[in-house]
Amino acid sequence: MKSPNGRKIVLRFNSELQPVGDEAGLLSSVMGLLGSDYTKFPICEKNWRKVRTRDKVYNECVKEMFHFEEDSRGIIKRIIFKILGRAWKETRNRLYHHCYDPELSIEENIENRLDGITADYWRWFLDYRNSEETQEKCRKNAENRSKQLYTHTGGSKSLARLREEEVI
Questions:
Q1: I need a surface site. Which of 70, 98, 104, 149 has the fewest CB within 10 A?
Q2: Alpha-carbon torsion 15, 16, 22, 26, what sign?
Q3: pTM of this prediction?
Q4: In this record, what's one Pfam family (predicted)?
Q5: Are 107 and 116 in contact (CB under 8 A)?
Q6: Nearest partner of 112 among 126, 124, 100, judged by Cα
Q7: Domain residues of the chain, as ranges?
Q8: Cα(100)–Cα(83) distance, integer angstroms
Q9: pLDDT tens digits, 89-138
């Protein structure tokens, strides 16, 4: 993946090595696109840490599109993986709630999958999402979310970007 004009986008980071500036918004958008690409990140993994293609996409897509100096402790790479992982997870959640119909049989649901997702991957994903263990996690997470006292209302900008704008 390359930027449209062939030039790399220069990323800036704050003292905590978080991406800041307008370029951070571009990074977030690109990570969202990459995280929702089923050919780069298959849906048939239980969690982000088990996705084997992470490093390949990081090297072939992220580093090809963005210019930044990596830190010796790998914090920047971990932050980028965190953004990618969140996009991957949110995409899988939207995919399940958009494409799965509990009124249909598993076979009918498999036929109704999106283009680009193999029947085997979709079957695995539906089996995983409909398992008792996963359903229990969903119930527990919904219960925990209902206990939150404050709702985030800061928009799509990260706190690091908002803080940096206040300083300028």
A1: 149
A2: positive
A3: 0.85
A4: Transposase_24
A5: no
A6: 100
A7: 9-146
A8: 25
A9: 999 999 999 999 999 999 999 998 998 899 999 999 999 999 999 999 99
